């Protein structure tokens, strides 16, 4: 690992990234479960947008982009003018002729008719991801979200009316105090929205309690209680049933889509496609090196050249990352990639373990791939850990 800080070389051309990720680390308020670096203020945002545009122009080398993702944080806290400036920097710095998918993450309270119409008029984004998390007001208060259930539904209607017809909804399972009946009601409300035909994608994550979050402290003090394992299993089964009944296919442990509407950006991450990440704390990957910008928005904004750290991945790291992500997807492991990553005893050991997972009904084997079954997706992390190759 190289020492921190050092300067960003201008316009690197050593990789062929086709993905661009932009990190916007600002939020209206802190969700109780959130362990990400995010700032609950608009102070310094203008300088941050300036710095983001500088970094885009410094690293843009005219390569053709396929997917672009504005993530955070909450990118929808930005004004339309700020977004337009960022778009201008991207268009000046990259070839946009092959772009397939451009996503912006948003929170419901920001999707007012004025804002979302103005966003649509930029004619840049063709996919909107909306962090709803729950349609139950009690759940939303418990996790300190700023919107309520009514705003969540109105946000989707506003986005659809503005012309967004490829919307992804985020939901959460296992919220404190949530019963299986509450979750069933969430799915019912989602079903009503799906009638609008604009929701093409669903990300549904089980709540995880990260250390030092507000939620962690509330649980430690006994103020909240998480649902039992049986409730979670019931919720997961309901989710699978709802998705099958409504034409959403599971293509990753936590992601479901209508046919043809998988997230192209995330699917490429999982395929280990190189990517450029700009903004405070954003990660980049060029096929062999991973680098991450300083995750301090003020330092990021003040620096003429962005401070970052990086590490060269060993072949073991690359293999372990590949199995960890690929086994979480319905596409699974590509045998030809396995053979380029491993040889000799390691390859034989891994093939033997994979054969065992096939016998256990966790994977199916085709001439080119090992693909998780529905049961296998539930055990993806466990299988990956058993396959990890140890560094010598
Ligand atoms: S909106 Fe997202 S990034 Fe912001 S506090 Fe909530 S979970 Fe964290």
Explain how this protein is built:
The chain is an alpha/beta fold and 392 residues long. It folds into two domains: 19-269, Aldolase class I (TIM Barrel); 315-385, Arc Repressor Mutant, subunit A. It is built from 15 helices and 15 strands. The chain has helices spanning 45-59, 80-93, 113-121, 137-142, 149-161, 180-194, 214-220, 229-245, 264-270, 297-302, 315-326, 335-341, 344-359, 374-378, 380-387; strands spanning 19-24, 67-72, 101-106, 127-133, 167-173, 199-206, 249-252, 255-257, 275-278, 283-285, 289-293, 308-312, 333-334, 363-365, 369-372. The strands form three sheets. It has a nine-stranded mixed sheet, with helices on both faces. The structure holds iron/sulfur cluster. Residues 27, 30-31, 34, 36, 38, 72-74, 107 line the site of iron/sulfur cluster (SF4).
**How much helicity do the residues have?**
40-55%
Bound molecules: iron/sulfur cluster
Instruction: Tell me how many strands there are.
Output: 15
Read across the widest sheet, the strand sequence of neighbours is 7-8-6-5-4-3-2-1-9
> How many domain regions?
2
Order of SSEs, N→C? EHEHEHEHHEHEHHEEHEEEHEHEHHEEHH
- How much β-strand is present in the residues? 15-25%
CATH architecture of the largest domain: Alpha-Beta Barrel
- Give the biggest beta sheet: 9 strands, mixed
Could you name the ranges where pLDDT drops below 50 across 5 or more consecutive residues? Answer: 1-14
CATH topology of the largest domain: TIM Barrel
Number of helices: 15
Shape: globular
Integer average pLDDT:
93
């Amino acid at each position: 690992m190289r020492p921190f800080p050092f300067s960003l070389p201008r316009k690197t051309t050593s990789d062929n990234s086709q993905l661009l990720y932009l990190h916007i680390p600002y939020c209206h308020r802190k969700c109780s479960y959130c362990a990400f670096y995010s700032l609950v203020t608009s102070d310094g945002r203008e300088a941050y947008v300036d710095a983001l545009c500088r970094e885009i122009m410094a690293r843009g080398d005219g390569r053709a982009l396929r997917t672009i993702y504005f993530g955070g944080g909450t990118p929808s806290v930005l004004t339309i003018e700020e977004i337009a400036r960022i778009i201008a920097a991207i268009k000046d710095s990259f070839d946009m002729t092959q772009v397939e998918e451009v996503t912006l993450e948003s929170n419901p309270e920001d999707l007012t008719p004025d804002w979302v119409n103005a966003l649509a008029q930029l004619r840049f984004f063709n996919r909107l991801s909306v962090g709803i998390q729950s349609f139950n007001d009690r759940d939303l208060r418990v996790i300190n979200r700023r919107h309520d259930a009514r705003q969540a539904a109105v946000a989707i209607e506003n986005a659809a009316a503005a012309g967004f017809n490829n919307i992804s909804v985020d939901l959460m399972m296992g919220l404190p105090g949530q019963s299986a009946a509450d979750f069933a009601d969430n799915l019912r409300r989602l079903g009503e929205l799906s009638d609008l035909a604009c929701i093409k994608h669903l990300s549904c994550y089980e709540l995880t309690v990260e250390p030092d979050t507000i939620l962690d402290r509330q649980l430690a003090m006994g103020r909240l209680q998480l649902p039992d394992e049986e409730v979670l299993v019931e919720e997961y089964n309901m989710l699978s049933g709802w998705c099958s009944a409504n034409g959403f296919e599971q293509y990753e442990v936590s992601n479901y889509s209508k046919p043809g509407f998988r997230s192209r950006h995330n699917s490429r991450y999982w395929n280990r496609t190189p990517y450029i990440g700009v903004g405070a704390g954003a990660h980049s990957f060029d096929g062999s090196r991973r680098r991450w910008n300083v995750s301090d928005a003020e330092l990021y904004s003040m620096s003429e050249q962005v401070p970052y750290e990086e590490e060269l991945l060993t072949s073991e790291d690359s293999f372990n990352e590949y199995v960890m992500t690929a086994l979480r997807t319905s596409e699974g492991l590509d045998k030809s990639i396995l053979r380029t990553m491993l040889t000799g005893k390691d390859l034989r050991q891994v093939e033997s373990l994979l054969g065992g997972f096939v016998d256990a009904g966790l994977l199916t084997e085709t001439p080119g791939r090992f693909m998780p079954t529905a049961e296998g997706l539930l055990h993806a992390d466990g299988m990956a850990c058993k396959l990890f190759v140890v560094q010598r």
